[in-house]
Amino acid sequence: MELSEAVPAPAAWAEIPNAETHLPGAAFVVAVIPDEDPSLEPTVHIHSHDEHVIPYEIMRWFMEQIAEQVERCRLAFEQGAPEAVE
To answer: What is the DSSP secondary structure assignment for residue 31, as one 8-state letter?
Structure first.
């Protein structure tokens, strides 16, 4: 899972109905969730050349997303279907 700063979509997309207005930029926080071994804990990697300020609520939301994905992976592993993990 990645956390990145949103960047504006290309100006040419403005004329396209329902086109995205923003796209993910380069990830600066990456969570690696081990889906092959439920005993392993996720790791969080910080990738940044610049300083990034992440609001507490955003970081909290991101960590909740990681926790939910870990639970899904562990449940799939327990059910004998690790390939069913997202």
So the answer is: E
Q: pTM of the prediction?
A: 0.70
- Map residue 38 onto helix, strand or coil: coil
3-state secondary structure of 6: strand
Domain locations in the chain as residue ranges: 2-84
- 2-8 sheet: strands from edge to edge: 2-8, 22-32, 43-46
For tokens 């990681």, name the residue.
66
Taking the alpha carbons of 46, 50, 51, 52 in that order, is the dihedral positive or negative? negative
Q: Give me the tens of pLDDT residue by residue for the chain, a chain 86 residues long.
A: 999 888 899 988 888 998 888 898 888 899 998 877 878 888 999 887 778 788 899 999 999 999 999 888 888 888 875 454 45
